[in-house]
Amino acid sequence: MGTVPREKFVDPGFEEYAYEDAPLSIGDGQTISQPFIVALMIEKADLDADDKVLEVGTGSGYASALISHIAMYVYSIERHERLALQARERFEKLGYGNIDVRVGDGSKGWAEAAPFDAIIVSAGAPEVPGALKEQLGPGGRLIIPVGCSDAQRLKRITRTAAATFEEEDLGGVVFVPLIGEDAWTAAHPMYTATAPRKNK
Ligand code: SAH
């Protein structure tokens, strides 16, 4: 974490807060995640040097930059075009050559690049999107905040066999909502799950 300059990932004027352990606004109602939570997610993803990783919710690009130092390649998907383009520019400027950024709905994953050794979702989902589980390779780990739009539980889902998944609870977190076809609808401020929620 010491090698990624977080001040280069925040908006102009916020540089002096870049090393506080707090989320910061990056515009479009979105935030760069709190460093502690990003570290926790990456640690729990149990990354190896030859891993192919998907990050859903590129935002500023900070988490993808961190992941790119540990894993082999990062596919990063962001629904806000402005944020995606800005992150892509940052990666170019800072010399990150192993991150591919795409504008799109990450609740559907990134099928063309699957399977992934790990998937890290940086926005809160009402349910675990099926496509993300399906795009995990054997032994793959999915780290995802799941719950209501203002508070979630961080989950780790591990693909233990072709059709078997193990789920662990990693604690309480607060993320901005994952908005997409297999997540929340964009109707703000009362987010509504796009699919009926089961057992909740
Ligand atoms: N990892 C980011 C944190 C960004 S906050 C960082 O380090 O800065 C979460 C991001 O998820 C927001 O930018 C939001 O626009 C994005 N997002 C929400 N729903 C999404 C979806 N369905 N697909 C892709 N990105 C999504």
UniProtKB/TrEMBL annotation:
NCBIfam families registered for this protein in UniProt: pimt, PRK00312.1
Keywords, alphabetical: Cytoplasm, Methyltransferase, S-adenosyl-L-methionine, Transferase
GO MF term (any one): protein-L-isoaspartate (D-aspartate) O-methyltransferase activity
PROSITE patterns: PCMT
Catalytic reaction list: [protein]-L-isoaspartate + S-adenosyl-L-methionine = [protein]-L-isoaspartate alpha-methyl ester + S-adenosyl-L-homocysteine
Organism: Rhizobium pisi
Protein name as catalogued: Protein-L-isoaspartate O-methyltransferase
Its biological purpose: Catalyzes the methyl esterification of L-isoaspartyl residues in peptides and proteins that result from spontaneous decomposition of normal L-aspartyl and L-asparaginyl residues. It plays a role in the repair and/or degradation of damaged proteins.
Coiled coil location: none
Gene expressing this chain: pcm
Top-rank EC class of the record's enzyme: transferase
Any one GO BP annotation for this protein: protein repair
GO cellular component: cytoplasm
PANTHER family: PROTEIN-L-ISOASPARTATE O-METHYLTRANSFERASE, PROTEIN-L-ISOASPARTATE(D-ASPARTATE) O-METHYLTRANSFERASE
Subcellular location: Cytoplasm
InterPro entries to which the protein is assigned, alphabetical: PCMT, SAM-dependent_MTases_sf
Active-site residues, Swiss-Prot/TrEMBL: S33
A Pfam family that the UniProt record links to this protein: PCMT
Record-stated family: Belongs to the methyltransferase superfamily. L-isoaspartyl/D-aspartyl protein methyltransferase family.
Annotated EC: 2.1.1.77
